[in-house]
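Re: that chain you flagged

S.,

Sorry for the slow reply, it's been a week of failed gels. I finally had a moment to sit down with the sequence you sent. For the record, here it is as I used it:
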Amino acid sequence: MVESILKVSLELVILMLIRKYFNNMKLFVLNLDSWWHSLTSGHQIFWGMAIISSVLFLIQFVLSLIGADFDGDADFDVSAEVESDYSIDPSFTAFSVRSIIAFFTFFSWAGVLVLNDGGSFTKALLSGLFAGIVALFIVSYMIWQFAKLSYSGTMRISDTIDQRGEVYIPIPEGKNGSGKVNVIIDGAVKELNAVTEGKSIPTGTKIRVLDVLEKNILLVTKDE
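Prediction finished late last night. Pasting the structure tokens below so you have them in one place:
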């Protein structure tokens, strides 16, 4: 009897909490809708871009924290053969996923701030363009410098065979996709794509390079 009463009471409490949650959500949506329609068309344009670009910026940031490859900013193609020497000379480019997201993030928020201060749409547009372009070139320059630091000098891809390293991005099993490994060559840490024929290899696992496959992909195994 007591257990039945407790069970019914618990169900009532849960139902009340769910109802309260949906009521709060409904009120939030109504307030959000009212706020949005109270904005001018200029405000709506800048706020819309600000929300979308900020969400993309946050996703990009989270992906970078977990080691996912969100962008190809520093992924420079090397067409050399496996047994040949090659040098990597990353060239500067202002346009990449990260720099474009930075442009729209700063552009939109600068516009929002100007309009909130009572500025005209033209002033908001010009201020946004200035802030966005500055952000675009700053991010592009940082990526370029990082690429130069990471890929400076020359190396021979075949020198990685029998070298030890560590998994940076997990490697799927049975060559069902590639991950990334950090291998020390000539005293410098190189980040290279890698596959394995055995079981999947998680991040942080020590590996040994067995061979170099097509497109300079390393074949690795766990370093026992």
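What I noticed first: The two ends are 61 Å apart (CA to CA).

Talk soon,
D.
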